Each structure stands twice: as structure tokens, then as C-alpha cells.
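Sat 14:20. Reprocessing the chain from the morning session after the first attempt stalled halfway. Input below, unchanged.
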Amino acid sequence: MTATTPVHGQNFFAIDADLHAVIIGRQPDQLERWRATLSDFGAWVGGPLDTEAVYTDRHGRPVLQPYGADGALTNHIAYNPLWTEASRDIYRRGIVGLNYGADPASYLITFVMGYLTSQSDVSLHCPATMTGAVAHVLNRFAPDAVRDAYLPDLIRMDGETLTAGTWATERHGGSDVGATQTVARADSGHFQLNGLKWFTSNVDGGIAIATARPEGGEAGSAGLGLYLVPTVLPDGTPNPMRIRRLKDKLGTCGVATGEVDLTDTYAVEIAPPPKGFKLMMEALEFSRIHNAMSAVGLQRRALWEALAFAVEREAFGATISTYPMIQRELIRMRVDLDADLALAIEAAHAFDQAWHTDVTGGPVGARTWLRLVTALAKYRTAENANRTCRAAIELIGGNGYTYDFVTPRLLRDAQVLTVWEGPANIQALEVMRLLDQRYAGFETFEATVTRIAEQARDRHADLANSLTTAMATCRDAKDLVTSSDAAAARSARQLMHAMADLLAAALLVEQAARDADGSRKALIARAHIPETLIERTPMAIDASDDWLFDHFEELLSPDLAVLFKH
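Finished this time. C-alpha cells:
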């Protein structure tokens, strides 16, 4: 076998057979309808966008030019031409706009676009994520006049899209949005905001939604309203605000992230207290799904880079992909990718299921499942993105640590995914809320895993039994963690970890039972379950993994089929 294709320049959609299969398992009609669009998008991501990402990160990062030639405050941010063109192109291709119009695509399709985008440029995926989130909030929740005035500019597909930001973070509060100190003062049919927003990505996009507390409002999240802040006023003049500086960040260096002083800044009310906080959480829930998609996209690219290197690199007289320790690492990366892709797609599909029926969000059960699977997916995929990107560098070696390879940027970008839209502890708090009897989140979780186990039992009894055993252990853990406030405070994150691993395992088993030829997915599930659900001694680990090496090429077959020809 000889390598014929580098990673750069590939059609990232066309070569991803596992992506096709998992979409077919949830929305086959949407895949067929939008296949050509996704294929065109995948070719753009693998070629021009990948070129832009390298240039922007290394040579063309945004620069704040706060004042014009006459000394007036302009808040201008200069971007390189490749970024500017790519930013126009991603919206022309419909990453937001396809969800609107007379015959819209499902949200799953545009979430998949985010997955593809992040294989080349997480920095560009970030503003697209927030633009989609703000469009969702305006479309579903804003007063008619606000929606009609601002939504069309966010969903247009002519290259002139306004992009958006979500301004919730403040210096003193961080994830505690309820501690917001920005004040909203009513003024002749609109509001004026005064305060400091501390971490505002896509700071000059054109539109932002911001939390603020009306004058005299009660403390905490119940006292917050939600406001739309345009960069330009209705009369065409700049909205009074000052970008203090751009953040000097570890990763995602292409997107401008700033600190913004709001000083009598014009704003339009989207929702008064107590609804403001809830609607910001609706935006962040949307973004959390994109966060999961981004994490899986980074895993996908890291695996590709590592495998492409391993099948070419010779050391100690053989190609390194033939060595068991290398094979074990590549298999682990592949298994994590399959499990996390299934989990992220489940969250995206849950979003469609919860919102396709009516403006209130569909049945209560659908909303609970959306919130639960989103928190689990956001947590697990972000953790694994860091692990996989780090592993790719280690496998490639010293070269993987240099910018001759994409891997250093993948690792830097992956780190933000554990922080964006709430770190792991925030996701654990969300999971704990959903386990309350008001939501019956664990009952929904258990019913889902049990259903999958029973459906798989005829074809894969061993996998079904593993799910049943793990479910009983997880139920015992839930009972312990929810037995007291002290237990919840100590162990909520561990319970979330167990639930995320179990749901990912169940979704892999579901794929194995559903597919006409589920043998490879069954192998993936059998590799995943001992790794995540079963406690093993060191000797048991060695013995139980022997079979993996006999199936190396089968487990990696979709990737090897693209990288090699026989």
C-alpha cells in the first residue's frame, strides 16, 4: 500500500463515512436532501478554509485600531483578506441561513457544518456559532418588531451577513452570570447600558445580545433582562461603546475577543426580568452543541494527521503504524471519535426534536433530553478533544510540535472548548438540576439506555448485557450523589462523567444493532466499553486488549481506505 493523498485538500465531508452513517441513523432524509451542499462545503473546508486558517493563525491575526485619522473613536478591527473572504463565504454557504426560509434545513445540517469547519478553523466556527445562537433567540423569543428589524441581517446568504456575539461574562462574575453588574436604564422607547463586558468574542460583528440589570432590579439571575446591542445606531452612527483591548489568547487567535466598556450604549429590549437570564441560557445551549461539534471536529483532524503520519513514517526498520503501542493509541483515538461523534449528533438531533413543533420548545420530555444530552456531550467531547490533540502531537513526535504541522494549533484551539459556554463544573450543575423530580432527567436517561440495550440484545447480547450492568451501577451512583447536598457538591462531576460515558456507549451499540453490517461498530463499542465502563486491573487491561490488534485495519478502515490504495 502506498499513500496517495495528504489531509489538506481533501473533501472533509466526502471522506467521512462514519459521519454519513450517524446522520442516516437520525435524519436520513435531511442527509439526502443536503448531501450536495455538505459535499461542496466539505471541499471548501478542506481546501481554501484550511489555507486561510494557517495564514491567519501564523501571520494575519486581527488588530485593534481604536481611533481614526481625526482622533475619533472608531473601534475598528483590521482583518487579513483571507479571513474577511472566508467569513463572508461561510455565511454564503448557509451555516446560519439554511435554517430559515420557506423550506429550511434541520439544525442538524448546520451543526454538521460546524463540525466540518472546526477541522480547519475553530476561530471561524466561533462567530458562526454565536450568530446562529442569536438568530435562534431572535426568531423564537424576541418581540415581533425586534425580530423583524434585526433577524434578516443575520440569516442572509449574499455575503453581507451581520454576525453576532453573546455578551454575558463580566470580570467579577465569570460563569456566575447572575452577578451581572451592567445596568440597563430605560430611555424613550429603548435602553442605555452601562457596564463592562469582559470576554466578548466576535466583538465587532454587528449585533450582540447582552445581559443587564434594569435600574432597581432585584439581585441574582431573576433580576436580569436581555438586550440587543447593535454596533451601528439606526441613524448610521456608531453606537457609543469602547473596545478597551483585544485579548491575547492561547488559541482561536483568528477571532477578535475584546473587553467592551458600555457607556450609555443604545440597546433594545428582547426580554425583561426574569426572562433575560433564561433566554441567554437558550443562546448558550445552542452554542454548547456547536462546542461539542467543534471538539469532535478537532478530534477528527487530529486523528487524520496522526494516522497519515504513522502509515508513512518508518522507524527501527518498519512503518510505525505496525507497532502495537502505536496501533493501540490510534484505536483509542478512533474509538473516542466515534463515541463522541454519536453523542454530539444526538445533541444536535435533540435540538431539532425539541424545537421543530412550536415556539415553546415542544414536549417537556424533549426539552429535558435536549438539556441533558447537551451537557453530557459538551463535557465529554471537550475533554477528549484535548486528549486526542495532545496524543497526535506525541505520536508524530518533535515534528508534531512544530508549525510545519497543524497539530500545535489543534491543541491550542481544543483547550478553549473546556471553557467556552461553561466549564465542566457548570455542566455538572446543569446535570444535577435535571435529575430533580421536576424534570425526571435520570428517568429519561435510563429509559433511553434500557431501550437501546433491549433493541440490541438479539444481535449483540454481550453489548446489551454490558449496558444493563453499567446502567445499574450508574443508578446506584445517582442515588448516592443525590442523597444529600454534600454528596452532590463532592461528586456531581464524577456522576456526569459516568453518565456521558454510558450514553456514548449506548449510542455506539445502537449503531451496531441498526446498521445492516454492524460488525465494525460492534468492534468500536467493544473497544469503548471496557475503556470507560469496566474497572480493570493492569493485567486485565493487557489481556483484554489483545484482540484489538487483530482488528486494527478493520477499526481504522474508513480512514485507511482514503489514505491508501491497494
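The two ends are 5 Å apart (CA to CA).
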